[in-house]
Design a protein that fits this description.
Radius of gyration: 40 Å
Number of strands: 8
Helix content: 55-70%
Shape: rod-shaped
């Protein structure tokens, strides 16, 4: 698998945890437009729902003391709607100004400064406090307006509006953090919020207090009111309890969904990334868009994936240098100096006239020819389960049957030799080579020193193959083989060879019966 630049998890909304947020490949302007639109929409919806919830509790949920009185007609129809309308206008203008000022840098491709990144990360908190101040002002103003007519309305109106404001502000903050994930991912590359590790338990507890704790507190307040208010009716208390319970049910469910989404989205992105890594896709990388310890989880996954990419890159380079079989054996078991006897087939192929080739052609061209020559040899050896053990200048040593066993190492070596000689004649016509194939017992293992060693095979079949390749240069169009190699191969491969001369090869004392591949 190619190990290039790390890529994200796209196509399923996993980059930022939701398809609404797009992917990391979006343009800067598209990202800013989407972020601003989501913040504006979520703030407006949360504010309207919070106001509606407060009005429901004031009018229906806590019916006594009632706000539906003739003397409060002007307050109900003029003052309150006017403040709400003005508050929405001023609130939206301030929100747009604050969002634009904090996210102005997102319209370009340049990374933000440290201050710009810090301002962006602080935006959810600033919107939260702005909402809180706006709702606190509403609680004070409405309490004063209704208190002028009936002082008993002050605690009812003020506390309900303030409680609704707390819940609305919490929702606005959570939704703003959600909308800003693409921006947060960029800002976190520049700066980290302090404190870095925000407690997940603390965050969950705050959301529970806003979604369920406040309604429960309202239920307790109504119960205490009933204890100390003789005029309270069972019907009124029942209505209040039902309204608060219903409101607590829906607000608790809403905050629970928001809380679980904030937690599950980063975990889901890491889970998806781990699945892809387990499939061998080491170029996977998740977007770090959470400023809490969940962001550390995402960063930790990316560090792990980077380590795996580096390990795979080293393994790939190592396998290219020593061969896939040796690399796998070395990784799976601790290599030790020494070896064991194994029965293998050996191919030794050596170029004819390599000295003249180097003298007649430029060095760069010679290297290019040698690479093409080695490419053909490696391809044919690897395709039959063999191992290219050494590149010796203008010669190549390949073995079949070690370190990975083969059912027919002699047949594989003979077949590979015939195929490579055919391909060399067609693909590398500038050179000719003598190719010898032998079969026998060698010592295969690691040779060298404790801090520098290599895997190789040592034995008479290796020497015999080298001498046989020299003998084969007399007819460099076909490979030559020893009798044990041909006689051990399967009958189909054996039939493709014909008997050749019998001679004592240089450096040997015994005769070698040779075979030549049929044309």
């Amino acid at each position: 698998m190619p190990l290039g630049r790390a890529v994200g998890i796209e196509g399923d909304g996993a980059d930022y945890g939701s398809p609404l947020l797009g992917t990391r490949t979006d343009g800067a302007r598209q990202r800013r437009t989407r972020t601003v639109a989501l913040i504006a929409a979520s703030t407006s919806v949360a504010t309207l729902l919070g106001g509606g919830f407060a009005a429901m509790l004031i009018v229906v949920g806590i019916p006594e003391p009632s706000v539906q009185r003739p003397e409060l007609h002007t307050v109900n129809t003029v003052a309150v709607p006017s403040y709400i309308a003005a508050g929405l206008v001023v609130g939206h203008l301030y929100t747009f100004w604050l969002v634009y000022r904090s996210l102005r840098w997102t319209g370009g491709d340049d990374p933000p400064t440290k201050q710009e990144a810090a301002d962006a990360l602080a935006l959810p908190r600033r919107l939260y406090w702005f909402e809180m101040v706006a709702w606190l002002c509403a609680a004070i103003l409405f309490g004063w307006l209704y208190g002028r007519v009936d002082p008993d309305l002050v605690p009812k109106v003020s506390l309900v509006v303030l409680g609704a404001g707390l819940m609305t502000s919490g929702v606005v903050r959570v939704l703003t953090e959600f909308s800003m994930r693409p921006v947060t991912a960029i800002a976190l590359q520049v700066t980290r919020p302090e404190p870095r590790h925000q407690s997940l338990q603390g965050r969950s507890l705050r959301l529970w207090l806003l979604g369920s704790g406040l309604p429960f507190l309202g239920v307790i307040t109504v119960a205490l009111f009933a204890l100390f208010e003789p005029a309270a009716t069972v019907r009124g208390i029942a209505v209040s309890m039902c309204a608060l319970a219903a409101g607590g049910f829906f607000s608790g469910m809403t905050f629970n969904l928001l809380s679980s989404s904030r937690t599950s989205a980063p975990v889901r992105s890491v889970t998806t990334g781990m699945r892809r890594v387990s499939e061998g896709r080491y170029d996977t990388e998740v977007v770090v868009y959470d400023g809490t310890s969940l962001g550390d989880l995402q960063s930790g996954f990316n560090a792990m994936a980077a380590g795996l990419r580096e390990r795979e890159r080293v393994r790939d380079l190592y396998a290219r240098q020593v061969g896939e079989q040796v690399a796998r054996a070395t990784i799976e078991s601790e290599p030790e100096l020494g070896g064991v006897e194994q029965t293998v087939a050996v191919i030794f192929i050596d170029l004819v006239g390599s000295t003249a080739l180097a003298a007649e052609r430029p060095a760069a061209q010679v290297v290019q020819i040698l690479n093409r020559f080695c490419g053909v040899v490696v391809a044919e050896v690897n395709s039959r389960g063999g191992l290219v053990n050494k590149f010796e200048g203008d010669a190549v040593l390949a073995i079949f049957g070690a370190p990975a066993p083969l059912t027919d190492p002699a047949g594989a070596a003979l077949s590979a030799s015939r195929a490579m000689m055919r391909r060399l004649a067609l693909e590398v016509p500038e050179v000719r080579a003598g190719c010898g194939v032998t079969f026998g017992v060698v010592v295969a293992g690691y040779v060298g020193a404790a801090d520098r060693f290599e895997y190789t095979v040592i034995g008479d079949p290796v020497n015999e193959a080298a001498r046989l390749s020299t003998y084969a240069k007399a007819d460099p169009t076909v490979p030559w083989a020893s009798a044990p190699a041909v006689e051990t191969a399967d009958p189909g491969e054996c039939a493709r060879w014909r008997p050749g001369p019998i001679d004592v090869l240089r450096g040997r004392t015994q005769e070698t019966r040779m075979y030549v591949a049929k044309r």
